[in-house]
Amino acid sequence: IQFHSEHRCAACLKIEILRKATLEKYFSGITFRLINVDDIANKEITEQFEAFGTSLYLYNTNTGQKKNLTDFAFMNTHNEDKYETEMKRIIEDFLNN
Fold first, then answer.
1. pLDDT, tens digit, 9 for 90 and up, residues 38-57
2. Which of 13, 15, 47, 63 has the most CB atoms less than 10 A away?
3. pTM of the model
4. In degrees to the nearest 10, what's the CA dihedral of 42, 83, 31, 12?
5. Would you report the helix, strand and coil content of the chain in percent, each value rounded to 5?
6. Strands (E), the chain
């Protein structure tokens, strides 16, 4: 799940592009949601995740397990290869736990 505000910065947009590319390349079966935190219709889920701006999470709908990837995503948008490699590893670890 990627949360964002109405007005998106370059880093937020880059996170979306990199996340999408990684999922399409390695994890075609994973569902992705892009959620605008400023839309009142999303109030419940933004409060559940305490997301009040750009945030990126892995979330298992069956177990409720969450992993916050926000810091990772922001720190690695400048290095696409590292982002892809590390994101793939993080997702694989999440799926296997």
1. 999 999 999 999 998 899 99
2. 15
3. 0.89
4. 20
5. 50, 15, 35
6. 2-4, 34-36, 55-59, 66-68
